[in-house]
Specification:
The protein has about 800 residues and is mainly beta. The protein folds into two domains: about 5-100, Immunoglobulin-like; about 120-795, Beta Barrel (Maltoporin, Chain A), CATH 2.40.170.20. Helix content is about 5%, strand content about 65%. The protein contains three helices and 46 strands. The strands form five sheets. The protein has a 30-stranded mixed beta sheet that branches. The relative contact order is 0.14. It is found in: Cell outer membrane. It holds the Pfam family OMP_b-brl_3. This is Outer membrane receptor proteins, mostly Fe transport. InterPro entries: Beta-barrel_TonB_sf, CarboxyPept-like_regulatory, OMP_b-brl_3, Plug_dom, Plug_dom_sf.
Length: about 800
């Protein structure tokens, strides 16, 4: 479909839905503070249910597709008196004045009222995992929580997989984290579950979002306190695995008339273990390596924000985030090198490696928001982020005989500092247009990354710079974007359509010791990213939704660096300056029965799919590189169902199946396909005396990771118990009870075959304790979707 046809289709569809009737309102408490998560019911005059919704974080609800008639509006929320109003819908949209819910008349001193959101919420465009409501989240960090999120899997490199596709972008409070690999893992490891409100899995982002992310977006929402006054909490977790680890956090929020101040500090301290075994066949030799690693880490996370209410309609705010991370890793690798023809061990490579990492990740966001009584809104964000990493890697290599006699030694040192600066600004505007809502916005961003790789040979204790293996890579990228989106509805139908345009200018410069080895990679391209959605409410029990979107996954900055550098004695890494972005077309059809049982079917086509592959160098060495290797097709089906067995036992269950087809476009890549199925289940059981038990788990059958690794099945069973008393909460959790998270898999690229297995100390016990103080009426701080939403996620770890 060409661009002109697309615009015509969008125009006629929008015109067809220009007669929608919409009801909008705001629900507030007696203090005039917005009330989120209020149940909103629209009944016909005979009491028949017509529509249902809940208020959002600002206490606002919006219900479309209401035919002109008289209805009963019912508002209910735990701890508040139910309010009913008779309303009349005409041929124009209606905005109600603020509706106040009074507190329930029973004595609140004698009754403790606890309003809880469902642990899992399934919405048309996303699934929300409400971490704050789970017991088993205690003591977990961000990485462990992603493993527990419904429909989410992590591969052996901690790449996130959703609906059978990689290329998921990680956001923190609406702003994408620019960390990846080991750095992202370290950051999420320090991010304690106690500071996380929810995890949103957005599989069909609209045109308002950046187009990056083949499989969509995972947005980690951090906690915000509510109401007037001052409130905070202090918590600590001790994890018992192979070694002891601790997570600690303190948070404080204060609402002072026209100011809302909030801050959080959390840290991680401890040692973790991992292993990886690789059986490699290359030419006439077999390399049977076994590596055990330990990581000592100390991470600090700081977040401080302020909102100033200039008027009742406008707010200005700012957020400062900082992460400081120091780690030391130690690994002991032993690789017997075997003659493939005779089976005799020629030699053994012993490599006791150590490295030191220091990272600093700082971000600043300034924002403004205006909203008038007609629903028109304007928001603007300006962001700056800086990421620095200093890494020093010491790599001794000793070749010995089977009896232990040293044959040869090679000791190297790599010093690899990185500095990345990111600038971004965006503005969004929304207003009612005709019978629907029109949105538009613009964004501009600039990224500059400076990577230095200094390689030293250590000879007789002296560090000697190897200029042939040292280089500097500077990458500059600018992205300009604009979008338009329209939502409308009529009768039982709703439609949303949008178009986003993104223009990219990039330049990568390799600065080598020898000028003849210098290279420069320049690119300029413009892309259109349409998105559309159609919803049909057949009756009170059945609704259908059809969504389409086109998305892009740009290469990580480091993957474009053409320089070849050494990882260890036998492995090298080389970027690919010819690496192309991969594009994805997604189509998803879903059906919801009685607002609970959701079934979805999706199809995705990924062109120029890129993956990290391992290629042979001669008879003994190999190098890692990222290449466009195939076109990918993904067929996916998912069924989710939250239900109550009885008044004290609730269950959320999700079952999925996917079929991945990789059609090779690279001669060395083998076309392959794989059927995968899995499930996720969460059981919450309320026990007497304020105890709560939680049993959860997930399973994934054999699958393909990154188009190259064919893996065996993995899964996890988790147990947790919670006890609350007054302002204290205690939890005990056991993760990966059966120790089934470690992975096994095989890969082949060209003449190189690898059979690998790996894992960490995922089976552990957590002891958690929290103390909450202050009142319960602190107003919720605004959630900021800053302008650094795409640029931060493409840094190689």
């Amino acid at each position: 479909m060409n661009t002109r046809t697309l615009f015509l289709v969008l125009f006629f569809i929008v015109s067809a839905f220009a007669k929608a009737q919409t009801l909008q309102g705001t629900v507030v408490a007696e203090s005039q503070e917005p009330l989120p998560y209020v149940n909103v019911i629209i009944n016909a005059v005979d009491g028949t249910l017509v529509k249902a919704a809940i208020t959002n974080e600002q206490g606002v609800f919006r219900i479309a597709d209401l035919a002109p008639d008289t209805y009963t509006l019912v508002l209910s929320f735990v701890g508040y008196t139910t309010v009913e109003q008779t309303i009349t819908i005409t041929s124009t949209p209606r905005i109600l004045p603020a509706i106040q819910l009074p507190l329930a008349t029973e004595s609140l001193e004698e009754v403790t009222v606890v309003a809880q959101k469902p642990i899992i919420q399934v919405e048309p465009d996303k699934t929300v995992f409400n971490v704050a409501g789970t017991v088993s989240s205690a003591g977990n960090n961000g990485i462990e929580l992603l493993r527990k999120a419904p429909g989410v899997r992590l591969d052996n490199n901690n790449n996130v997989i959703v609906e059978g596709k990689t290329g998921v972008l990680i956001y923190i409070d609406g702003r994408q984290s620019f960390l990846q690999g080991d750095d992202l893992t370290a950051y999420l490891q320090a991010l304690q579950a106690d500071t996380i409100e929810s995890i949103e899995i957005i599989t069909q982002p609209s045109a308002r979002y950046d187009a990056a992310g083949n499989a969509g977006i995972i947005n980690i929402r951090l906690k915000r306190e509510k109401g007037l006054g001052t409130r905070g909490s202090i918590s600590s977790t001790v994890t018992v695995g192979d070694y002891l680890r601790t997570n600690n956090s303190v948070s404080l929020t204060s609402r002072l008339k026209k100011w809302n101040l909030y801050g959080t500090y959390s840290n991680y301290l401890g040692r973790s273990t991992s292993f990886i075994d690789l059986f490699r066949i290359q030419g006439d030799k077999i390399f049977d390596s076994q590596t055990d690693s330990e990581l000592d880490g100390f991470s600090n996370n700081i977040r401080f924000g302020a909102d100033h209410y200039l008027t009742k309609r406008s707010t200005i705010g700012g957020v400062i985030t900082a992460n400081f991370n120091d780690t030391e890793s130690f690994s002991n690798s032993q690789t017997p090198i075997i003659d493939r023809n005779t089976g005799v061990i020629d030699s053994i490579l012993r490599a006791p490696n150590s490295s030191e990492n220091t990272t600093v990740n700082v971000g600043v966001n300034l924002n403004y928001r205006y909203q008038d009584t007609t629903g028109t809104t304007f928001s603007a964000d300006v962001d700056y982020g800086r990421y620095t990493r200093d890494r020093l890697n010491n790599q001794p290599n000793f070749y010995v005989t089977p009896s232990g006699e040293i044959l040869n030694e090679n000791i190297t040192l790599q010093d690899t500092p990185i500095t990345i600066d990111i600038y971004a600004a965006k503005a969004d505007y929304e207003q009612k247009l005709g019978k629907g809502v029109f949105e538009t916005g613009v964004k501009a961003s600039k990224v500059r990354t400076d990577n230095i790789f200094d390689f030293f040979n250590i000879i007789n204790g002296t560090n000697i710079l190897n200029v042939e293996r040292s280089n500097e890579f500077i990458y500059d990228e600018k992205i300009y974007a604009a979008y338009a989106k329209y939502n409308a509805g009529t009768g039982k139908w709703k439609f949303q359509g949008g178009l986003r345009v993104e223009h990219t200018d990039s330049q990568g410069d390799l600065i080598a010791a020898t000028e003849t080895n210098n290279e420069s990679v320049n690119r300029t391209y413009t892309d259109l990213f349409p998105s559309a959605g159609l919803t049909y409410a057949a009756n009170r029990n059945n609704s259908f939704a059809l969504n389409y979107s086109r998305r892009i996954q740009r290469p990580n900055y480091q993957d474009l660096n053409p320089f070849e550098y050494q990882i260890d004695e036998l492995s090298f890494r080389r970027g690919n300056p010819f690496l192309q972005p991969q594009y994805t077309n997604n189509v998803k059809l879903s059906h919801t029965y009685k607002y609970t049982l959701t079934t979805s079917f999706s199809y995705s086509y990924v062109s120029d799919f890129f993956a990290q592959v391992t290629e042979a160098i001669g008879d003994s060495r190999n190098f890692l590189s990222t290449r466009n290797v195939a076109d990918q097709e993904v067929y996916n089906i998912s069924v989710s169902y939250p239900f109550k067995v009885n008044s004290w036992w609730s269950v959320y269950a999700n079952v999925y199946g996917s079929y991945n087809v990789f059609t090779a476009t690279n001669d060395a890549f083998i076309s392959t396909s794989q059927e995968t199925f899995g499930f996720y289940a969460q059981n919450t059981i309320r026990l007497p005396k304020d105890f709560k038990l939680e049993v959860s788990g997930w399973y994934s059958s054999p699958s393909i990771w990154g188009g190259t690794y064919e893996t065996e099945s993995i899964g996890s069973l988790n147990l947790a118990v919670q006890k609350t008393w007054k302002q204290w909460t205690g939890k005990i959790t056991i993760n990966d009870v059966l120790y089934t998270i470690p992975w096994n898999g095989t890969t082949q690229f060209g003449d190189l075959f690898i059979d690998g297995r790996g894992g960490s100390d995922s089976r552990n016990v957590n002891f958690y304790l929290q103390y909450a103080f202050g009142n319960n009426d602190v107003k919720k701080a605004r959630k900021r979707n800053g302008s650094l939403e795409d640029e931060k996620g493409r840094i190689g770890g």
